[in-house]
Structure of Acetyltransferase-like isoleucine patch superfamily enzyme:
Amino acid sequence: MKNQIPKSSSIGKNVIIEEGVRIGENVKIGDNTVVLKHTHVGDHVTIGCNCVLGIKPGGNKRMRNIQEKNESLIIQDYATIGNLVTIYSSTEIGKHVFIADHASIRENVQIEEGTVVGRGSIIELNTKIGKRCTIQTLAYITGDTVIEDDVFIGPCVSMSNDKYMGAKEYELKGPIIKEGAKIGNNATLLPGVMIGEKGIVGAGSVVTKDVRNNEVVVGVSAKKLQK
Amino acid sequence: MKNQIPKSSSIGKNVIIEEGVRIGENVKIGDNTVVLKHTHVGDHVTIGCNCVLGIKPGGNKRMRNIQEKNESLIIQDYATIGNLVTIYSSTEIGKHVFIADHASIRENVQIEEGTVVGRGSIIELNTKIGKRCTIQTLAYITGDTVIEDDVFIGPCVSMSNDKYMGAKEYELKGPIIKEGAKIGNNATLLPGVMIGEKGIVGAGSVVTKDVRNNEVVVGVSAKKLQK
Amino acid sequence: MKNQIPKSSSIGKNVIIEEGVRIGENVKIGDNTVVLKHTHVGDHVTIGCNCVLGIKPGGNKRMRNIQEKNESLIIQDYATIGNLVTIYSSTEIGKHVFIADHASIRENVQIEEGTVVGRGSIIELNTKIGKRCTIQTLAYITGDTVIEDDVFIGPCVSMSNDKYMGAKEYELKGPIIKEGAKIGNNATLLPGVMIGEKGIVGAGSVVTKDVRNNEVVVGVSAKKLQK
């Protein structure tokens, strides 16, 4: 497969590049990384060691079956992927995005320009994340979530998308987090809550209902902060 | 070692299979995976890339020394193991179990038929998990825990098994979670608490005492929900 | 590079050892591990499979630029590193330290003799951890944190170091956790809080202000426990 790789790009030892992969100019791929079928890697992309990129969704008979929109994982120019990262197919990683070590990103996810995804963070399927967001370490972004531009998600934030915890038929809904909102570390967001523009959720809070634009909420369950 | 592998099974590149490993029919193993001594892989099992399977317990002089019951890791038929997963020896993964990427499962663990273990979840030693459970993403199942059938553990749930946090001699006790119980995302369970059959713990709650059958508890510390 | 490795040490398959690496006597390195430039591995060190050690810091243009003090990762004698672990350069892992699987440790970190770092735990940059500490599974130690000797950090504990969540210029301050303090599982610590000597934080608590020596605090936000 070496013939697909431009001379300006450097590929580590024991790297596996499957068929249909495209590698741009000035790309660096670390040792032992696996790049699966039909992954497109843009120019000036850096990828660490021991990653697995372009994974096809699997599951057992109790898990929902996802129709993929697109077979390729697309990594845009100047993106950086750390070490021991997994990313699925049908996902797009925008320009200048930074994905830290041990992160995992599922299928049908879109992450826009300049966003940072922290170490050990997990982003589930069917999720859209805007520009210049910061998703900190070990944050959990559930499936079917919408995060607009310039959002800050603190470390260890937890979200869920299934109100009945598997007990009933229910259309899964993740949180909707509007432009410029900030979620403090280890906060808990319930399914489908909306956090308004520039809304702030205090560290360790449990958000059970919508937060208005510019509102600051804290506590369990989270209430408007009295000044 | 290639002579141990049936023709119906496909083994990726740079895979390491140590001595005494048994590989069943129609098995797929992804690239760069390491299968350590005495691991038994059943028929129709799928294993991802960059996993380490069959790890022997280690430790330093401050950690407890575990006597292993059985030297083998046993992976039953039709199980699916994701990418970058670690599983220890003396553990049994049941039929049709699904273990997602980045999960880690310690020694002396038993996981029964059809259970799903989420992405980045960690299951500590001496733990038993029943049939058709859902353990969601980044959940932490502490050591010495019992989870019965059809239990739902939400994302980022945290448990502990040491009441004195290392300060005194104490027999470690994890939670006991009875049939059909549901634990909301980012809930905290204290050592040895029992969650009764079909009991429900709200998201972000801190459970400090037992929950009765069919009871719904919420808050810090969690109390019976007033309707 | 095999000439740099003493005969008493054993190196697994597909291991990559870059230039300037020093390997001591009686070292074991598991399969598929990558040891990057200028890493120093002491005597009697055990390292698992699929690790990446000695990583140089990266980032995108929105992330802070760290000046490294020292180019080497130093792993002292008798340390044990699990599987799928990442450790950065300019960090020092002390004697008899145990780092469990899937853990990640950033640059400019010092971990002293006999400390245990749990499975999936993440330790951010510029952090100092004393002797004989226990950092349990999936705990998150933010950047610029000080942890003294004999501290216990429960599983899933979360910390943060940025009071304004990226909104203002601010000198980042992690928690300061004094000798013998204990933090319960899934507790949340805010930026710069000090936990006094032998202070105890209950499981699931949110600590918003300093805790005195020997004080026990619980709740959201955490208050002194009334006996």
Notes: Chain C touches chain A through 37 residues (CB under 8 Å).
